[in-house]
Specification:
It is a single chain. By secondary structure, the chain is α+β, with helices and mostly antiparallel strands. It has two domains: 75 residues; 80 residues, RNA polymerase II/Efflux pump adaptor protein, barrel-sandwich hybrid domain (OB fold (Dihydrolipoamide Acetyltransferase, E2P)). It is 30% helix and 26% strand. Strands 4-11-9-6 form a four-stranded antiparallel β-sheet, with no helix packed on it. A hairpin with a 2-residue loop joins β7 and β8. α1 packs antiparallel against α2. It is globular.
Length: 200
Amino acid sequence: MRQERLKKLNMRYQIHLDLVDIMRCSVLKSGGNKMKFDEVKELIAIFEKSDMGEMEIKLDGDSVHLGRNASFSVGNSETETVKTVIAGAESGMVSAAQTNGAVSNDTDINQTADVEKESVSADDKLVTAPIVGTYYQSQAPDKPPFVKVGDTVAKGDVVCIIEAMKFMNEVVSEVSGKIVEVLVEDGEFVEFGQPLFRVQ
């Protein structure tokens, strides 16, 4: 038990150092400007490896809020309500808090993913989210969706947009076939690797 506890403490300490390095690097490189998208992806990767339930990164008035099985928000830190904060980028100080139930949330996510995989037939293929963010079916609310049920897509076709850190990322299909089901709602928060479309 003691060795396991020490191992967890070492892991959290290393994550703490990694976050400090990224935030300091961001300030030095950009002169205190907004975080770059690659830096956000690094932070997401570190968060995925951690056992934290939620965390928020703040830099020059902008914030990124990450949570397991929770909402994802990007906005002005003066108007956002936060539960867990990794803040103080300008001073190089980082703090993290762990929420209760993180382990059970991970279990729920894994069980949901298993059920989704089992429901896909042998002939079906999935288009999945390449990044964490907000799913949009079209370029704008008044524009038609990129694809809908019944449409045929080819490999490389744009099927939707995922917004992360105010960047609109086009998601392209890795498979060819007919869209038989759209698995998420417009404006829904999606996890990395979450199925978006079922293709036959």
